[in-house]
Amino acid sequence: MSTDPLSWLDERAAERVDAGLRRQLRERVSESSAIDLASNDYLGLHRHPEVVEGAIDAVRRWGTGSTGSRLVTGTTTEHALLELELAEFVGAETGLVFATGYAANLGVVTALAGRGTLVVSDAGSHASLVDACRLSRARVAIAAHRDVAAIERLLAERAEERAVVLTDSVFSADGDLAPLAELHRVTRANGAVLIVDEAHGLGVRGEGGRGLVHELGLAGEPDLVITATLSKAFAAQGGVVLGDARIRAHLIDAARTFIFDTGLAPAAVGAARAALSLLRRDPSMAARVLDRAADIARIAGVAEPDSAVVSVVLGEAQVAFDAAQACRARGLDVGCFRPPSVPAGTSRLRLTARADLTATELETIAEVLGDVLATARGKESVTA
Ligand code: PMP
Where is the Aminotransferase class I/classII large domain (predicted)? Predict the structure, then answer.
């Protein structure tokens, strides 16, 4: 028997290499000149002088770290202002900021659902919602992707008094939208709370980027909770839960990822406030993200997306990986999703649009993607 307790990792690594699934960290070396179609910086604000200044100013006033839990020393007036501003922006009663979007999802789900609760989650919900289900100790049911009828059945037939339904508003892999209006009708009719992760909706969908919940006229509904990250359109870090004041108060009492996590760093709070302020001043930024996504979709020969995410399904993991590498070699930074992030046989390039993409950049994108996708699609049709 091997005495090396880590030898199983060598076997696991070999399996992943064989399957073309080994992941590598790609370091960004100083300011890259590559065209960014891989990040979630949807509004292109993460180097904007006002956002950078917002972070620096917050650090000067509050220091580099928040110094403690939000319950002890980790809440500054900057945190409180950000919560008010975000709530006002999306049309919610209150907001509560967490250290990450991941922590916000874990916190709100585990605080609202426990033993004796049914949690129903869309099969495409983000990994943080999946983990939240596992942590909650509730009975968990996974409904097929965007299947409102299945969710309605599960809610109607439940034995539990309380129920919570989880979904992304914009799904992160494909960029498709949840049927939120129907979902809310069903959750309300069945006495359930609807939790909507707007990570990819805020800054992109809705009037001036107020999100899909706002766009559908559902903002401020007391039985609907929004979660979001500050790391995408808002160009910072952190997460937020937006909703009814009773929920906020309960989270402060009961959400473990709020209570036992250090408060969000002042720099991130300052940056997020500055980004939100820029978006309010130029609400057309949100529509520009969707326009640029439509441009990229046309170039890639796929349907116009409903979000910033342009998903170009290529098939086998190796084909998608090679295509991504070819793009990167020619100065186009793209995302590549392979199993387990997406189902086997649907590996893809994931291209994200930015509000600030220029006409010159779009020309380069057309040139590079045209070549790379022709090769990748040729390859796939030969191996298929
Ligand atoms: N929800 C969704 C839909 C996401 O895409 C992400 C980030 N990848 C998160 C939550 C987690 O947010 P954060 O990165 O702020 O932890």
Answer: 35-369
Q: Which amino acid is at 217?
A: G
Beta pairing, strands 224-229 & 193-197: parallel
Q: How far is CA 44 from CA 35, 40, 85, 288, in A?
A: 12, 9, 20, 11
Alpha carbon of 232 to ligand 1 centroid (Å): 8
**Distance, CA 169 to ligand 1 centroid (Å)?**
12
* Band of residue 71 on the pLDDT scale cut at 50, 70, 90: very high
In this structure, is residue 325 part of a structural domain?
A: yes
201 lines ligand 1 (CB under 6 A): no
**Confidence grade of residue 22 (pLDDT, cut at 50, 70, 90):** confident
Residue 383's pLDDT band, with cuts at 50, 70 and 90, is very low
> Within 13 Å of residue 4, how many CA atoms lie on the same side as its CB?
6
Domain termination residue (choose one: 237, 262, 281): 281
CATH code for the domain in which residue 310 is found: 3.90.1150.10
* Rounded Cα distance, 113 and 117, in Å: 6
Q: In what order do the strands lie in the sheet with 332-337?
A: 35-37, 332-337, 347-352, 309-315
Which pTM does this prediction carry? 0.95
**Which of 42, 229, 242 maximizes ligand 1 atoms within 8 Å of its Cβ, making it the mutation to test the pocket?**
229
- Looking at the structure, tell me whether residues 178 and 195 fall in a common domain: yes
- Among 226, 257, 281, the domain boundary falls at 281
Bridge partners, 332 (sequence order): 35
| Model ipTM over 0.90 | yes
Domain count, the chain: 2
Q: Please give the Cα distance from 140 to 151 (Å, whole number).
A: 12
The string over 84-99, giving b where at least 16 C-beta atoms fall within 10 Å of a residue's C-beta and e elsewhere, is eebbebbbbbbbbbbb
For ligand 1, whether the C-beta of 229 sits within 6 Å is: yes
Domain check: are 142 and 216 in the same one? Answer: yes
CA-nearest of 40, 24, 23, 173 to 101 is 40
Structural domain of residue 174, as residue ranges? 49-281
- 196 domain residue, yes or no: yes
CA of 101 to the centre of ligand 1 (A): 5
